[in-house]
Peptidyl-prolyl cis-trans isomerase
Amino acid sequence: MVSKEQRQRHLARAKHERQQLRREQSRARAKQRNSLIGAVVAVLVVAGGGTWIATAMNDDDKKSDATNAADNPTAMPTEQATNTAPKTCAAPAPGDVVPQTFPTAPAMTIDTKAAYDMVLKTTCGDITIALDAAKAPKTVNSFNFLAEKKYFDHTSCHRLTTGAMAVLQCGDPTASGSGGPGYQFEDENLNGATYPAGTVAMANSGPGTNGSQFFLVKEASGLPPNYTPFGRITGGMEVLDKIVSSGTADLSSDGAPHENVVLNSVTVAKKP
């Protein structure tokens, strides 16, 4: 007959084996997740797609961690990595984001034969972008319209990727990766499109889904020609360099910037 003590030892051993199995499964999923995220980051800068994949995988791991903690009450929860480097950007200008949506894309008002500059006055410094109205007229027209409405003012640049593809993504008033102006418009300037350092292009969630989110390229990337390039940085590249060099808030290769990058104001002006 099995004694109470033997039965308790057997149950404890079985419990330990279950915990070990769950930990091994969790580590395997984490390894698979990191490989997948790395592959996604190498080819995508999508308003929601890449982020959704990472979130879905992270949620699965969190459930596994919660199960392990329940089985082993003495286990310490896994702490998320935090970037503890000093922040060097200024505090945001006074003011709040004013939520705005529009039923349709704006009517064409820009001169497609003229040159336009867009200036991002950020908490980390000013970035000037020469807009290509001839090759991306609908995109430039949209930015001209939204800037006049102060749509971008006080919004945060919500996403940074580092490593082989270093880009900063901005233009979402919700800072969630899924916000937009309420309208979408088709892609432009994709024939033979490349993304060298200094390129400014539209983020999207598939063909013809351009809204307000855009990204600034710090280093040349091998992105496929799926993202409308509509401008290039002509001033303030050192500002982008500083933001990228500071990394992400959680030290990952794809996440919120460590620096608090806020667009205090965005203006578009026709050059004389």
In short: Residues 88 and 210 are 32 Å apart (CA to CA). The first strand starts at residue 116 and ends at 122. Residues 4-71 form one domain. The chain has two domains: 4-71, 116-270.
